[in-house]
Amino acid sequence: MNAKLKAEARRKIILDGYVNNEPLKDIAAKIGCSLASLKVSASKLGCTRTPKEAAAFRRGFRVPEEKRRDYYQLMIAGQYKAHECARILGLLTMQLPGPE
């Protein structure tokens, strides 16, 4: 019975972490497993992030569909970094702290 409770608690932590967009490393630390094990468990639960969601999470902002073409054109042809493109397109409203 105790093992079942642990499994249910683990499932709840994984699902809540994905819903709240927590970093995967933090979720793995909470349940005491490796990142790979967390990804496998999340996949079995059906709560993995799509490639678009994962990219938006890494960037820290979401690119709307109507600006996606302009964003990628700036990235490729303009050779800008992701946050520079976002600033140009008005997706970021404040300056993020970082090395200048």
Q: What assembly state would you assign to the polypeptide chains in this entry?
A: single chain
How is the biggest beta sheet arranged?
Answer: none
Are there runs of 5+ residues with pLDDT below 50, and where?
Answer: none
**Helix share bin:** 55-70%
Which short descriptors sum up this protein?
100 residues; mainly alpha; 2 domains; 6 helices; 0% strand
Could you explain how this protein is built, in words?
The protein has 100 residues and is mainly alpha-helical. It folds into 2 domains: 2-48; 49-100, no CATH class. It is built from 6 helices and no strands. It is elongated, with a radius of gyration of 18 Å.
Helix/strand layout:
Layout: H1 2-19, H2 24-31, H3 35-45, H4 51-59, H5 65-76, H6 82-89
Brief summary of the model shown:
It contains 6 helices and no strands.
